[in-house]
Amino acid sequence: MDLNERPRRNRRTPAIRAMARETRLDAGQLIYPLFVHDDAADVPLESLPGQTRWSLDGLVAEAGRALALGVDKVVVFPKIDDALKSRKGKEATNDAGLVPQAVRALKAAHPGLCVITDVALDPYSSDGHDGVVNDTGEVDNDASVRRLVLQAVCHAKAGADLVSPSDMMDGRVGAIREALDDAGFTGVGILSYTAKYASAYYGPFRGALDSAPRSDAAYDVPADKSTYQMDPANVREALREVEADEDEGADMVMVKPAGPYLDVVRAVREHTQLPVAAYQVSGEYLMIKAAAQSGWVDEKAVVMESLLGIRRAGADVILTYFAPQVAAWLKEG
Ligand code: PBG
Q1: Ligand 1 atom 8 nearest Cα
Q2: Minimal-distance CA residue to ligand 1 atom 12
Q3: Percentage helix, strand, coil, to 5, in the chain?
Q4: Which one of 103, 109, 189, 219 has the lowest number of neighbouring Cβ atoms within 10 Å?
Q5: Atom 14 of ligand 1, residue of closest alpha carbon
Q6: Residue 166 Cα, ligand 1 centroid: separation in angstroms?
Q7: What span, in angstroms and rounded, lies between the C-alpha atoms of 157 and 164?
Q8: What is the 228 CA–ligand 1 centroid distance (Å)?
């Protein structure tokens, strides 16, 4: 054939393909979510095969293993004992609580590690909500923000590099920024869960932390999080959240989940100059793991392709339970 254009020429050899490659993945673009509990044992998680609910010592060791592979950012999620849960999630602001202990231990052992904390009440809430449920059965925005602000300052005092509000209350980023600044933590950043959807893909995470909404209280407890997390049908609304977070002083914005929301990642990327993060959540992880266990897909290839797709959509950084595994694969080449 007499063709002027032969796109296959740019795919002919590995060296040529490397030249034509538009998107890359490296360990510095990954954030590793880690689970911790107040127990001396490291407990493998049934809902997340390959992931563990760590003791404090186990957490420090696992972060060290990740760091040695080049994963230098972690986000910590606590499993709180039922006895410490309450309606207002008071334990969330305890300076001697599990998260402050974990942050101090991680920073002491690994000063170069970037430690990020989750700001939301669900692990501490007897109702399993990210905010405070009031007597009329609503998740009370302003009462919740008052608690979240204290939680963020508590994490900053312990040495967190960034706090990451995942609660989706209105106005929380601005309120947290002001409280951090007033407390002298002008250098502590805010990685905001800007467009967090009311997603069924969080199921295995809620199993890992026993943090799903519960309806056994004497008052009405909303059965799901759809009055604050976003409707999966919406993308313009995500941009409205981006604008609010920018005005309020967010340092980075996040889209969550990632894989089923690549159009949102792209739209957010084009709407802001801030770094964009995307969270490959527990259900996305589990689906790949389960598919790989069936033997019908190649785990490494599918994981890499899923993360490359999230990067190609416009994410600068990806939260993924695969982080250390991916870093190891990248080293192997
Ligand atoms: C809660 C929180 C959730 C996740 C991160 N922070 C669950 C939820 O909103 O119910 C989910 C992460 C995952 O599924 O991997 N503040």
Answers
A1: 202
A2: 281
A3: 45, 20, 35
A4: 219
A5: 202
A6: 7
A7: 15
A8: 13
pLDDT digits (tens, 9 = 90+) for 66-84: 999 999 999 999 999 999 9
Active-site residue list:
196, 256
Distance between CA atoms of residues 281 and 118, nearest Å = 14
d(CA 121, CA 167): 8
Q: Quick check: is 6 in a domain?
A: no
Q: Is 82 exposed, middle or buried (0-12, 13-18, 19+ CB in 10 A)?
A: exposed
- Phi-psi map region of 3: left, alpha, beta (phi>0 left; psi -120 to 50 alpha): beta
Whole-angstrom Cα distance, residue 321 to residue 53? 13
Task: Give the bridge partners for 119, in sequence order.
Answer: 165
- Whether residue 105 lies inside any domain: the answer is yes
Residue 168 CA to ligand 1 center (angstroms) comes to 11
* Domain with 317 in it: 25-332
Ligand 1: nearest atom to the Cα of 202: 14
299 C-alpha vs ligand 1 centroid, how far in Å? Answer: 24
Ligand 1 lining (C-beta closer than 6 Å): 118, 120, 122, 130, 166, 202, 205-206, 225, 281-282
Most informative mutation of 193, 205, 226 for ligand 1 (most atoms within 8 A of CB): 205
The total number of structural domains that make up the chain: 1
β 73-79/30-37 pair status: parallel
User: Looking at the domain assignment, is residue 1 inside a domain?
Assistant: no
CATH number (domain holding residue 42): 3.20.20.70
> Which residue puts its alpha carbon closest to atom 7 of ligand 1?
202
What tens digit of pLDDT does each residue of 134-193 get? 999 999 999 999 999 999 999 999 999 999 999 999 999 999 999 999 999 999 999 999
Cβ proximity of 315 and 258 under 8 Å: yes
Q: Which helix (H) or strand (E) holds 208?
A: helix 203-209
Is 2 part of any domain?
no
**Could you give the count of Cα atoms lying within 13 Å of 304 in the half-sphere of its Cβ?**
15
Average pLDDT over the chain reads 97
